Amino acid sequence: MKVAVYNQEGKEAGEIALPKDIFEVPMNADLVHQVLISQTANKRQVSAHTKNRGEVRGGGKKPWRQKGTGRARHGSTRSPIWKGGGVSGGPRNDKNYTKDIPTKMRRRALFMVLSQKAKNNLLVVMEKMEIEKPKTKLMVEMMKKLPVNNDSRLVLTSGGKNVFLSLRNIKKTGVLESRNVNVADLLNYKYLMVSKDGIKEIEKTFGGKSEARNLKLEINSKK
To answer: Could you tell me how far CA 75 lies from the centroid of its own chain?
Structure first.
């Protein structure tokens, strides 16, 4: 698949042939959904936490004697039925929400989402993305010249600190290093912007051809 390459003035500067094993992978919505759920679950922070009767203060002494007072018998003020006592069946912060997904499945789902971006003309390839010093205004002007309309976009950088600093405060714009691209961030933004060097870095990091071939062999062997 060939797509147009744009310079920083918003003009076409040629074409680039995208790696077939990364940008021409058939879609499997179930696999993408499974990887997305695992990724969001692994980010989940368990903050709700209640103390049980063994963790609250007090209760070392029996509130009153067992018999003769006319009141119900109690052994500790830490009981869940007492005000200030422990909570029975409340949320605890030791719950584990993490979900393990094999690396090959994660990478295959990533290639599927990247392929859909390219297929639906939502991939904008830049000749380069460079800036001498951090300047948000310059990056905003560059965005206006590119075919990303006014929709959300994810920009993949290749280690340029100035570009990263210039992009991070622009509305509806996300920024990541190319080697950290993932399914969840790709699905959160409509357009994907990446330089030619960024595409090479994706190919180098995720090794599209070998991963796709290994997964296919693994699936066939299970059949």
So the answer is: 50
Do 52 and 130 reside in the same domain of the chain? no
Q: What are phi and psi of 108, to 5 degrees?
A: -65, -40
Domain that holds residue 204: 2-44+98-222
**Using CA atoms, how far apart are residues 10 and 13, in angstroms rounded to an integer?**
9
Domain count, the chain: 2
Would you place residue 216 in the very low, low, confident or very high pLDDT band (cuts 50, 70, 90)? very low
Structure tokens that stand for 119 in this block: 């297929």
Cβ atoms of residues 13 and 7 within 8 Å? yes
Of 211, 176, 208, nearest to 192 by C-alpha is 176
**108 lies in the same domain as 85:** no
- Read off the pTM: 0.80
Residue 109 and residue 134 in one domain: yes
Q: pLDDT tier at 159 (50, 70, 90 boundaries)? A: low
Phi, psi at residue 195, to the nearest 5°? Answer: -85, 170
